[in-house]
Amino acid sequence: MMSRYIAFLRAINVGGHTVKMESLRTLFASFDLANIETFIASGNVIFDSAEIDAQALEKTIESGLRQALGYDVATFLRSSAELAEIAYYQPFPAAELDTPIHALYIAFVRAAPTSAAQQKLLALRNEINDFQIHKREIYWLCRTRSSESGFSGALLEKTIGMPATLRNATTVKKLAAKYPAP
């Protein structure tokens, strides 16, 4: 029985690390994965695997990417069912999200942040940035351009003390629509 996974990769096509999507698909094929597709060039890889232990699969992918690319690529796997839940979770009122300048980002982490890490993150709330934590995702409402917000993925990782990767909620919703849960 094959399961569909979506891998959200950190450090792909940012910070001088350029990886062609064709090369990324070839690498994933070398990990004994099937039906591999990429979605936009920011490290979103969709695939099927017989492996049911997602944590073991994350480690396999990270190890293979480190060996092939020469640097660490934090990998965050979600099943298609988990992705659907993430995409349609409503962390903030619709009125906040319907404002053109406001954007919603979703940070993927391996485990729910500790209560101490959650408190540190929520202490960063202000009139520009707001956060909601739900399971293994952190939802960031940015009420201005992200480059002007004073918040970043690096600050998020430092605050919660663990790796994370951010995606725009629009991208996550498009992925969930294109790769629905069976």
Provide the descriptors you would attach to this structure in a database record.
single chain; 182 residues; alpha+beta; Alpha-Beta Plaits; four-stranded antiparallel β-sheet; globular
What does this structure look like?
By secondary structure, the protein is of the alpha+beta class. The chain folds into two domains: 3-83, Alpha-Beta Plaits, CATH 3.30.70; 84-178, 2-Layer Sandwich (Alpha-Beta Plaits). It is 36% helix and 25% strand. It is built from seven helices and eight strands. The strands form two sheets. The protein has a four-stranded antiparallel β-sheet with strand order 2-3-1-4. Strands 6-7-5-8 form a four-stranded antiparallel β-sheet. A hairpin with a 2-residue loop joins strand 6 and strand 7. Helix 3 packs across helix 7. The chain is globular. The model has no long low-confidence stretch (mean pLDDT 95).
Largest sheet: 4 strands, antiparallel
Q: Which shape, going by the Cα principal axes?
A: globular
The CATH class label of the largest domain is: Alpha Beta
Compute the number of helices: 7
Number of β-strand runs: 8
* Average pLDDT, all residues: 95
Please state the second-level CATH architecture of the largest domain.
2-Layer Sandwich
Name the strands of the widest sheet in spatial order: 2-3-1-4
Helix content: 25-40%
- Which residues form runs of ≥5 with pLDDT under 50? none
Total domain units: 2
Task: Kindly provide the radius of gyration, computed on alpha-carbon positions and rounded to a whole number of angstroms.
Answer: 16 Å
CATH fold description of the largest domain: Alpha-Beta Plaits
Query: How much strand content do the residues show?
Result: 15-25%
Elements, N to C (H/E)? EHEEHEHHEHEEHEH
- Termini, distance in Å? 12 Å
